[in-house]
Design brief:
seven-stranded mixed β-sheet; 32% helix; alpha+beta; 9 strands; two-stranded antiparallel ribbon
């Protein structure tokens, strides 16, 4: 899920990969049937500071804590996460715990998630899954069980039902899945999200591979459309007061 930054998301391209049930069949930013690819050239975008370019860098284990903190801040006001974690006082802590689990147990091992920031810092993160790799293996689900109970508390059953509904609509066609895209609020408007999007989408075009995401904010839909995504469905989540999500697909360009 993605969130805004002058329409640069704090993304939830989106908020469901962490607690996805094993039965889900889904490939959102999830992506890949892949043989892990070698690092591609970095995408560079101009920072507002003259002479200070930003580049997309492959996420490593040492980056997990900082990336989780950035994503927690980016999604603090996200409609889906706010509904899943309604207590504002505990939400920051629970969000950071959830993103830490997702990074370590789900996304990091694919070698396709990236981060960027001004002057070499980490101020934005994109969690991508390669084609055919968006489903969470049973072994990872088992490892996540207790940490997820701590992160979601009594809201875990609600989260599982909602995220299971999203996964049931995940496309089966091969694609890269953008599970989350988020920029630290204090860095939004700096082109960081754009650098991360261009980094992966350029490679999608080179390999003629589609991309998929779910936006948890209607205001972010135009941002993703700017990169060639189109809405395929507005999906209402189950449960009282549940917000909708927008499923978005992108065909490779130049084909």
């Amino acid at each position: 899920m993605a969130g805004p930054e002058a329409a640069e998301p704090g993304s939830a391209a989106d908020s469901r990969s962490a607690v996805r049930p094993e039965t889900a069949a889904h490939s959102e930013i999830a992506e890949e049937p892949k043989a892990v690819e070698s690092p591609a050239p970095e995408a560079v975008a101009e920072s507002p500071e003259p002479g200070a370019p930003v580049s997309a860098r492959t996420a490593e284990a040492a980056d997990v804590d900082r990336m989780a903190a950035v994503l927690a801040r980016a999604f603090a006001d996200d409609p889906v996460w706010s509904w899943l974690l309604p207590d504002e006082a505990s939400r920051p802590r629970r969000l950071e715990a959830a993103f830490t689990i997702l990074l370590r147990e789900v996304h990091l091992g694919h070698g396709s998630s990236e981060h960027t920031g001004r002057f070499g810092g980490i101020e934005a993160a994109a969690l991508w899954d390669p084609p055919g790799r968006w489903r969470t293996p049973l072994s990872a689900q088992v490892r996540q069980a207790v940490p997820l109970m701590r992160a979601f508390g009594l809201r875990l059953p609600v989260a599982l039902r909602a995220l299971g509904r999203i996964e049931s609509h995940h496309p089966e066609e091969p694609h890269w899945y953008l599970a989350f895209l988020g920029t630290d609020p204090q860095a939004q408007g700096s082109g960081l999200g754009t650098a991360l999007m261009r980094s992966r989408l350029r490679r999608c075009d080179e390999t003629r591979t589609a991309a998929y995401l779910e936006s948890s904010k209607e205001s972010n839909v135009p941002y993703y459309e700017k990169f060639g995504f189109r809405v395929t469905r507005e999906l209402r989540l189950p449960g009282d007061g549940a917000p909708p999500v927008w499923l978005m697909w992108r065909d490779p360009e130049g084909v």
